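TA notes. Do not distribute before section.
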Amino acid sequence: MNDWFTYIVELIFGCGMFFNASLFIPQIIKIYKMKNFSGLSLTTFAGFNVVQFFSILHGYLHRDWLFMCGMAISFILCGTVTIGIYLHGDDSSSLRHPRGRERLSDKEA
């Protein structure tokens, strides 16, 4: 019974890891179609990437390959959104420009 229980838990966990990664796909598709990054937080997505990066390292250190691969896929997909926000997002993002919109008014003057 213990082997059967372990198998079921591992199967559900593995499916959950890939489902977690797939949650970024609709956002990527929406961004690609609309070419609009407004309303997306660079801080939030960059924070997800930091957590995912250290989760990958944790999986590696504990030789949990399923966890590591699931987090790596999430990292790549979330990173796609993060890079898009950084390159094409709103100029007022605090990670891109600490002074926000003041930077725009300095150029206009």
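Switch to the second chain here.
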Amino acid sequence: MEKVLLDTNSLIYAIRNRIDIEFELKGITPQILPAVPECVIAELRGLSTTKWYAKAALQYSKKFDLVHSEGEGDFCIMMTAIHMNAAVLTNDRQFLKKLKNRGIRCMTLSGGHKIQFY
């Protein structure tokens, strides 16, 4: 099974656009397993005190496997992806460029329910 790490941005985008990430990924191949790094959970907890969509994304994240990570932010997700040889699902364009420069497989949610690979 190939793991795909979900970042904060992708979880919030899914909530705001009513996208079932797991369903969309399984539509591509059933061999993909979405997972959420601990640093994403920490970021969502912080945002959830003032943002309704972050609170909803935090609840939604419980649906996925939780993976150990150290640090915070994009760097944490990137290092976790490298360590696990996992892809990353993000809609953050700057982060997407960083991931591509490091040779990490990337995906984005776009056009409502489409997943694009980079």
